[in-house]
Amino acid sequence: MNQGLLGKKLSHSYSAIIHNLFYEITGIKGNYKLYEVSSKEGISDFLQMCKNNGIYNLNVTIPYKKEVFPYLDVISSQAKKIGAINTITYKNNKFYGDNSDYFGFLKTLETKKIQIKDKNWIILGSGGSHESVKVALQDKGANEIKVVSRNKRNKMFISYEDLLKIPSNAYYGLVNTTPVGMYPNIGNCVVSEITIKKFSCAIDLIYNPLETVFLKIARNNGLETANGLFMLVAQAIKSQEIWLEKTYGAKLINDIYEKMSNKL
User: How distant, in Å, are the alpha carbons of 50, 109, 137, 171 from that of 117?
Assistant: First the structure.
């Protein structure tokens, strides 16, 4: 079974380690590789190469979660709603697109016992990952959601200048979906401490490093925090469920998460 990850720069990725642990624990024979494609123009040729070489299971990461849409034959209703793809399956001579980030994000909040319903949330960043977070929060009854972006597309979007003006405790949760603070640029933080202190909860989808400057500031100011590692593990297992058409329990996710935490 040949599987892999499509992205632009993957030196920071832990995906292969996670999927290899999955093979080890389940006894499944698999091969998971990282595939760097330098531009979106190369996606079509890459998918053709996968088809020719029996690489039928793919994850997709930054910056191609939206760019892969035109190359897929069938897209799940959830992936359409989210507007981003992170899981591709080739079967019956067709490419199928799905999204397991949604599942991974909700599992993270559930495990950390972080409240969603009737809470106000702000999402930092408007790339492919923010869509999964936004739809997950909406589906679980979040009250108001604002997305901070350099491009204000509609009334849901605000600028980083607008973010500076929000009063303390007006919003409960702050979620970073940008790559700011990710290895190797671990000294960077997407927003200031003044802003972070206005929230009760901070979540960073980054998992390398496990504690970004953003999360360290949040923790030091008494906020509930969660990094992106549990989400990464949970979405990886959900991808395997989609590919293998089989269900795995929460125990497997927790076991792999613990092994990853110990490794890191």
Answer: 41, 12, 8, 13
